[in-house]
Amino acid sequence: MIKLKESIRNIIKSKLKWLAMLPLMVMLQGCIPSYKFNGSALNYDIYKTIDITEFPIRAALVYPPLQQTFENKLLDTVTRQTRLQEIDGNADLEMTGEITGYSLSPQSVGEDAYATETRLTITVRVKYTDNKNSENDIDQSFSAYRQFSSSLMLTDVQDDLCNEICEELVNLIFNATLGNW
């Protein structure tokens, strides 16, 4: 009989502990952060379409595959991370621009006064137009770079460097426009 009473007391104590924690759990529930897993902060009731035009190369130094590489990465990121439909003309959102910079610059100088590292910098100017809310419009340049050993030929590393730089540029552009951070 004593064991039964003790057992009932323990059950009641454990239930009371849970009841005492219930208000705390309810209060904390309002503090739980919410995340959007599509990578953007767009209201899809308002925004349904986007028009992404070509980004021609206007830089003094030209690497022809760069335009296609950049455009493909931009379009791929927008289609993967949003539910926007890409159309030509008359869209809710428009993204136009140009590749304005493709430059090489020496970075580190060795004992023999020759550069030991070279920096490849790519700059893209983007004009983002929100046809539903002009306060979100952006006309901005974005730059990214990678360094490589000067002992390597640019032609040997150019494709990989351009892919990496374009990936970074697209992320910067996405975050500044569609990511709405």
Describe it.
This protein is of the alpha/beta class. 38% of the residues lie in helices and 28% in strands. The protein has three helices and five strands; from the N terminus they run H-E-H-E-E-E-E-H. Helix 2 runs parallel beside helix 3. About 5% of the residues have low confidence.
Topology, pairings included?
Elements: H1 2-29, E1 49-52, H2 65-81, E2 85-86, E3 93-109, E4 115-130, E5 138-149, H3 154-176
Parallel strand pairs: 1-2, 1-3
Antiparallel strand pairs: 3-4, 4-5
Helix pairs in contact: 2-3
Distance between the termini: 65 Å
* DSSP, total strands: 5
Query: Given the C-alpha coordinates, what overall shape results?
Result: flat
- Spatially, the strands of the biggest sheet line up as 2-1-3-4-5
- Compressed to H and E, one letter per element, the order equals HEHEEEEH
The major β-sheet equals: 5 strands, mixed
Q: Radius of gyration, rounded?
A: 27 Å
| Integer average pLDDT | 85
Instruction: Give the proportion of residues in helices.
Output: 25-40%
Tell me the structural class.
alpha/beta
Oligomer: single chain
Hey, roughly how much beta strand do the residues contain?
Answer: 25-35%
How many alpha or pi helices?
3
Poorly predicted sequence stretches spanning 5 or more consecutive residues? 30-38
Features:
3 helices; 181 residues; alpha/beta; five-stranded mixed beta sheet; 28% strand; 38% helix; single chain; 5 strands
